[in-house]
Every structure is written in C-alpha cells, then in structure tokens.
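From: lab user (bench 3)
To: helpdesk
Subject: output format question, protein + zinc ion

Hello, I'm new to running complex predictions and I'm not sure whether the block I got back is the full result or only part of it. Here's what I submitted:
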Amino acid sequence: MSADERFLVSEFSRSGIGFFEAQTVGKVPNLSDGGRFHEVPLVVRRCPIFGGQTRFVLGSKLQPEEDVDLTPVTTAPGFCPFCPDKIDIVTYPFPQDMVTEGKIVRGRSIVVPNILSYSTYSAVGIYDRTKHFVDMKDMDAELIGDLLGGMVDHAKAVRSFDPDAKFSSINANYLPPSGSSLVHPHIQSSHDYLPLSSQGRLIDEMAQFKAETGRGILEALVEAESDLKVRYVGQWGSVSIITPFAPVGFREVWLVSRNQGDIVDLDESQVADFASALAFVIKGYVSLNLQSFNFAMTGSGDAKEVGGNVLLRIVARSNPSPYYRSDVTYFERLYNESMIDVTPEETASFLRG
Ligand SMILES: [Zn+2]
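Helpdesk reply: Thanks, we reran it on our side. This is the complete output you should expect:
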C-alpha cells in the first residue's frame, strides 16, 4: 500500500483560501474488547493562515466537566501591585512626551508601563483597579471596552512617539494556567521593531495574498467561512466571529475586524465591537465551566499596504486546580502541532445556539 492510500486527503479552496484535511486512523487496544486493536478515526488539518497542523482526537474529551472553586487562588495575597492600596505607589506614569496624562484611566481600568522588559514598549492594563479579582462572569462589554480602549490609546501614543515600533499586539493571560504570574486580572501589550513569530507569519501571508489576489487574506477567510457556515458564528458590528479550521488551542475563537487597518487604526466604535464580541465569547466559556484563557490581538504596521485586518484569537486554558493538567503538550511546544478534542464546528454551533 502506498503512503497516500493510508490516509484520505480532502483539499479545496474557497474565496482563494486553501483548506487541507487528512483523514486516517489510529490503531489502539480496546478495553471493552479484551485489548484487541481497533481503528479509531484521526483527523489532521492544516491552518490556511498560520500553516501549523492540528490533530483532532475525536471522542476523547480533555476539558473540565465542572468549574472549580477559585477562592484559594483568587484571595488577595499580602502584596499585589495592582490592588488599590499599592497601585499608585508601585506603578509609574508613562513619559509625558508619549502619554500626556501619565497613566491612562478609563472607568475602573488603568493602563500603566510594564516593568517587565519583554518588548521595546509595553503596557499592562488592569481591568479593575478597585478590587483584586474579576471573575470571567463579570467581564462585560463595558469593562472590557474601557480596558481595550485604554490599551489602544496607549498603542496610538507609542506609534506617534516612535513610528518605527510598528509591530503591535495586545495580549492576555488570565489566571495561572494561562501562564499569568499575577492573579489580579490584567492584559499586556508589545510594540516592537520586530514582529512576534506568528505575527510575522501573518503579515507575510497578508502580503503574499494581497500581491496575488489584490485583497486581504483575513477578509477572504471570513468570506469563505461565512459561505461554508459551519465555523461562522456571526457579526458584531465591524467584527466577525469565526472558529478557526485548525485551532492551536481549546475552544479557539477568532474575531476579525471588517475594516482594514492596524490596532492603532481602530476607532472608538470598532474597539467597542471587539469588546462586545469578546464579552460574548467569554460568556460562552463561562457556560462551559472554563476559567482560564489567553488572547492575542494583532494587526500589522503596514496594514493598508498588505491588506491587513486586526485579528484577535482567544483560547481556553485548563482550569486552576491543585493537580490540573496543562493543555500544552510536546505536540504544541516542540512540533508546533496542536492536539484538539472539540472541533471548531462544534464550538461555532454551540456559540450560535
Ligand atoms: Zn490585586
């Protein structure tokens, strides 16, 4: 038997976006059949935007059945730099020639310089400076909108101050399973002369697609998904919600701005659209007992030239628990290949419902 008879490839193109899927089987002993080897379906997909492969382990559910009591994790510790008694003392203002007001306050949120140097310019944004913990249940469009608006204002200030720091992203870790070192809910940004690796890949794909077709790759992807329907969730003003063909994380959802441009080109109403779309997805996560997530929002400093649209990707992470299983395995970390147990079609269908 030749290699290509051992798996079935289905490949097609829609709106210029190529979709690749291979179906094969895994051979494993079956417990209810005295350990006789059975064939179990195995699906591998390739992401049409980022190129990575995802493996769907059908029938095996790796996600939490119920939520857990977060009190042991979320009780305020002796020292928290973002709590009301410390934030004015241990955070510093931005330089006045960059951000006139020093710190950016909107509603209960505040945006201040990040003391961890992982980017040329970075900010940390705190959802609520008046209390230590914000549960995902309480993350509404207003709370998220104030914070995201403050981070976008900071991004605009950075870009006017130093136009060369054009690789911008706004990102979140929520609770320790997502990699967050501080429990007090916050988000972070990067503004660099060099893109992050998948940000660079996205910009290259944008540029190549634009050169070949004259249009934006994310715009074409949304059109394809809206046509195909199974991974299309809906439209929130200027933001489309889809689930990715080949997710890199659990319950991954993509929010794509309809307007071409970068993070710094977002106006108030487009920020509000992202905030309400994000609040909607987080509400969905809450109803699935998910209690931790990461998100990554990127565009391109050359957005208009490369046909770029702002993309926000969000994935759920394992729930906090003394013996929790991290959802990052060597597949993700060493092979850049994700192992996923719920299909994007199921997530889209769930969110539509
Ligand atoms: Zn705190």
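A quick orientation on your result: The longest helix spans residues 141-161. Let us know if anything else is unclear.
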